[in-house]
Design a protein that fits this description.
Blueprint: E1 9-15, E2 29-35, E3 38-39, H1 42-49, H2 52-63
Antiparallel strand pairs: 1-2, 2-3
Length: about 60
């Protein structure tokens, strides 16, 4: 597993947000993001999405 520097992750776009799933948002995932100024590959996004806590934190950060 790649060790990402989360401070370098920007332009996060989430998908799978269903408000009927509040407060779990278990279907949410990172659809796209940039890492250190470059668009992340599908492989990197898959790996990033394995960090469920990070995805959950990003959901809450982007809701408000």
């Amino acid at each position: 597993m790649t060790k990402f520097d989360f401070n370098k992750i920007t332009n996060v776009v989430l998908d799978g947000l269903h408000h009927w799933d509040y407060p779990d948002y278990c279907d949410a995932f990172i659809d796209s993001a940039d890492y250190d100024g470059k668009e992340m590959t599908d492989e990197q996004l898959d790996e990033l999405n394995e960090d469920y806590e990070l995805v959950y934190e990003l959901v809450w950060a982007n809701l408000f």
